[in-house]
């Protein structure tokens, strides 16, 4: 039972290399960003549990008494388990969606209800237990996009920079403090649909798509090697040149897999006009891209690139990689922008 306000944050993350390939057993490199999502858990005396996700446009509340009376025997008791299609159908009844509820609100609400009801049922919530958090986050991912590799929840939980392959996770030792632009094209896409379409392309053209995935694997390994070299000695301009080449090659491969989008092409062209190299990150088909910022870049050059991207209608943030994973905060330690954002909810 929550007796006080709990402030939790999780890092934003990007996949440096290996998206899609990781679903097929290849290596991915993922890093946590110094852009965080804050969550305020707050006790209410109105007998309701509320979910407020302003960015997704979700604001819902359910009577705790009603939820407590539900027969939740359809939820797995013994272990952390993925929701079955029957479970999802039952959760839809609990959610009681209004007719105008959009298709991106629905999975967010279902993921919340699934995790909330499962965790209450088990009564074994321990905030410190990162393993447990990671496992639950993975199940939440399954509600949202079906067949996740596990890389996204792992990097959000542990932070830093991770090498991920088939559930095997290792942290990159002292990754260099790379600066990047994270750009949101604002083009909506479904990770589930994109992962499925890459799989279908692999099944249709195994001799063509298989080598592409092997090549992406090699790009991730080469990137890991270069980041290791940069950590061992002072990063040199040549390191950044290699990182830029890897970004370009991977972006072309991802296009060949069918994960591209004209908005991402535009993002790459705009940054290339400023001498910077970009690739999509995550599922593609819209969504976000990353642009590597070399340390020699002057502030006005970075600013001009950001303005050019914003001019395309994109959102753009300058940030750095390797942030801490999920964290608990005291209210006093939050900076005023975050405080104000949470107070405005
Ligand atoms: C999505 O952020 C990354 C993908 O590789 C899917 C996954 O790993 O679950 C496209």
From TrEMBL:
Give the UniProt keywords, A-Z: ATP-binding, Cytoplasm, Kinase, Lipid biosynthesis, Lipid metabolism, Magnesium, Metal-binding, Nucleotide-binding, Steroid biosynthesis, Steroid metabolism, Sterol biosynthesis, Sterol metabolism, Transferase
Q: Does the keyword Hydrolase apply?
A: no
Recorded family membership:
Belongs to the GHMP kinase family. Mevalonate kinase subfamily.
Q: Which GO terms describe its molecular function?
A: ATP binding; metal ion binding; mevalonate kinase activity
Biological process (GO) annotations held by this record are: cholesterol biosynthetic process; isopentenyl diphosphate biosynthetic process, mevalonate pathway
**Sequence ranges assigned to domain GHMP kinase C-terminal in this UniProt record:** 245-296
Q: Which domain of life is it from?
A: Eukaryota
Specify where it is mainly localized: cytoplasm
The name this protein goes by in its record? mevalonate kinase
Pathway per the UniProt entry: Isoprenoid biosynthesis; isopentenyl diphosphate biosynthesis via mevalonate pathway; isopentenyl diphosphate from (R)-mevalonate: step 1/3
Pfam families on file: GHMP_kinases_C (PF08544)
Q: Which InterPro entries match?
A: GHMP_kinase_C_dom, GHMP_kinase_C_sf, Mev_gal_kin, Ribosomal_Su5_D2-typ_SF, Ribsml_uS5_D2-typ_fold_subgr
